[in-house]
Amino acid sequence: MPSRKFADGEVVMGRWPGSVLYYEVQVTSYDDVSHLYTVKYKDGTELALKESDIRSQSAFKHRKSQSSSSSPSRRSTSRSRSRSPGRSGKGRRRSSSQSREHRDDKKKIIQETSLDLPVLVWFKASENNTRRYNGEPDSTERNDTSRVISEQKLKPDLQIERVIEQYSLRPRKEEKKKEEVYSEKKVFETIKTIEKTSSKTKDLEFGGRIGTFALIFFLPAAVFYLLLMCKQDDPSLMNFPPPLPPLESLWEARVFGVFLLWFFLQALFYLLPIGKVVEGLPLSNGRKLHYRINGFYAFVLTAAVIGTLLYFQFELHYLYDHFMQFAVSAAVFSMVLSIYLYIRSLKAPQEELAPSGNSGYFIYDFFTGHELNPRIGSFDLKYFCELRPGLMGWVVINLAMLLAEMKIHNQSTPSLSMILVNSFQLLYVVDALWNEEAVLTTMDITHDGFGFMLAFGDLVWVPFVYSLQAFYLVGHPTAISWPVAAAITLLNCIGYYIFRSANSQKNNFRRNPGDPKLAYLKFIPTATGKGLLVTGWWGFVRHPNYLGDIIMALAWSLPCGFNHILPYFYVIYFICLLVHREARDEHHCKQKYGLAWERYCQRVPYRIFPYIY
User: Fold this and answer.
1) Number of C-alpha atoms within 13 angstroms, CB side, residue 65?
2) Is the whole model's pTM more than 0.85, yes or no?
């Protein structure tokens, strides 16, 4: 078995994957099986490198000393002295043999220089390379630079031109200007090379290619299973599988037409020139996209349309009667939209691809989303679907379930349980639309591409699974007392307060850390220029917004009683989803913030649940 060359704790020069650039790293461990060294960069990034990709620091210092020993500037000085005005007469009397000897000496200098002429490249290292490796661009990190020595051989014609310039009698200012232009070109070319080789998604989520392929079929099946179970008289898990309806009953062209009408009505409201226009976070190329914030206005207009339909005796419980058909129509539309999004992403420039969906594997990129911000003109498809048709559709479906309950059970007023579910979830949706600008800082917008995962989630999962409690109460009415209702309401208010105040602290601090109103917040500075909050809600647990989400999800399910576990599916799903997101956030933040994140975790040990997890 080969012996290791570098010891733990030794400081060496490690090659950055996919490039010819070497950085100063520290060896942390060695795997005897794979023969790979685990090294840590200065910003805290840890990578596994082969022994052939690691060099000792002495080797770099030796090459640098060799280059400096034959410094062209010294030769230039000596030649300049030999041509002083006092010797000009003697220079004119030199023989032709001396001139030939002079030319031979110059050729010899060019040849010697071409053998060992290292180029010093100034490059954005450490944090910027870590950011590209993780797929998280941030313009605030673009000011951090570090010197990296890359020994690259110049082309012969450039070598000759460069040496001639160095040995000429031009003023040093002109030579320095040439040097700066030359270095800038080399830096630009090197950056382009690194971006192309390191922008691929390396950490695959959801089980990689196999997992995402299975989820494309599992997610629609899960939605249909939940809806079919809610229709049963006894929605117990013991009654699996539920009786399947005829396939022809799952599709109706009229229902699909109503869904399309709803989708394009929301698109029309999105395009209305009302509401302010704000900038999103910087992209990888430094550009900022513009977004019109008019979601709440669209909600008011939607409420006016629904009110008008009810005034003219439109039967809104039509949604309840054809609920499964609407779910199928939404699933078909989301699949067609996902195919369109992937096809158009194949022509998108490299800098417009999503950091999380650029693996090179068709299934994985199709599922997670290949393009980060697909737009048709100024119409941002991902941003539109994030809050509009699905989220507002959730409220409309809840209202339809309330009316269906009154009609089916011959009630003059809806049940207290149905009122609580509708009220709690309406508050959640209105809050999201009122604070629409905050969604621009979420990972859905800044990191995740727009593919099947978000398209199906926004258009199918949110409206048809999040309304599960209201759908359940139509067929399984549950009576609760006023004291119980008051206790559930208090629980929802606590969850909402934690959720909203935690998100407000984070968004305000991210937008303007120097705001005097946030002077009471303490934070840990990071190498990226950002800060990690260690006071307020973010000093209580690492993800207080997730804690608020889970408390509210529980309050939404409690009005359904405890006869069946089906209404609590949302709580179970939400906990699993947030734990997955929390693990992803932990991995991402550890790579992005390095040692600062380790300090933060020591300061705030609990992730979601205080004193538990």
Assistant:
1) 6
2) no
